[in-house]
Amino acid sequence: MTDLHTRTAAQNPRIDQGRVIVELTSRLVSAEALMASLQNAQLSSSQLLGSEHRVDLVKRLTGKSSLDSAISSTGEMITQLRQAVSTARSFKRVDTSMFTPVGAKS
After folding, report:
1. Is 86 exposed, middle or buried, given 0-12, 13-18 or 19+ CB atoms closer than 10 A?
2. pTM assigned to the model
3. Higher pLDDT, 9 or 97
4. d(CA 42, CA 65)
5. What residues does each domain of the chain span?
């Protein structure tokens, strides 16, 4: 995907809303797959540690395991991506050609 942040309004008067939604949805699906993988890894780790009568040293020192932190961060990312998809779907097409590009002389 082109870096839309570096393009001016004059260079990109219309943003393809459908493409943005597809890209955001793709990233959301990937994040949800990552979450499932992390949750499975956490379950496996807990079972293994329990069966070997060991403790998670990171969790003992910090109160959170590294997988707890990864799951939390991924959950926040999923929430933000869902909001971004929702926002992108609610936008109406706007012609930005009337705006003066950053750095352009008026």
Report:
1. exposed
2. 0.70
3. 97
4. 9
5. 16-89
